[in-house]
Task: structure prediction
Amino acid sequence: MFIITYILTKKAVLKTSIDFVWFIVFILYVFVLHHLVTYIAVGDFISSTYTGYFYIQTNMINLEPFTTIENTFRQTLPTMPTIIQIAGNALLLAPLSFFLLYFKICKRPSMAILVVFLTSCAIELIQLAQTTLITGFDGIMLPDGRSTDIDDVILNTLSGCLGVVVLYSMPALRKRIGKKRR
Result:
């Protein structure tokens, strides 16, 4: 996390004190994102029993696009955790694309969306590695709903597009903030 924060800090263009405050919010977002999607406490490994039997939990992998999304909307009454999962993935990386463009870390929207796509793929691969690693220990539980799902990548990428749309729908706001501080 330190390396990612360092890289973002070196590439960000901060023009005003408001930009600095927004950059702090961005860094906090990156840490919260890590905690939500890839964090497993080291203490869990220390307090558990090592069995050495590692296997891929194929029941926790979905590689068929739109299956999870379609199943959610086909339910007569979707459960709240399922709705939160879908909505959360549809919004999860919007701040990432927004801030990548806002701070000029990425110069073009297509590059920001590519970064969001690659970030989403990395999250899913890390979650796959974690679910496989955890099988070798007795006593570690995954967070509820943790799985590797292509639909998460699709929704997260759409969320990146949403962040771009939000940023480009208010360019006058950024100009006004910049002019007020000069």
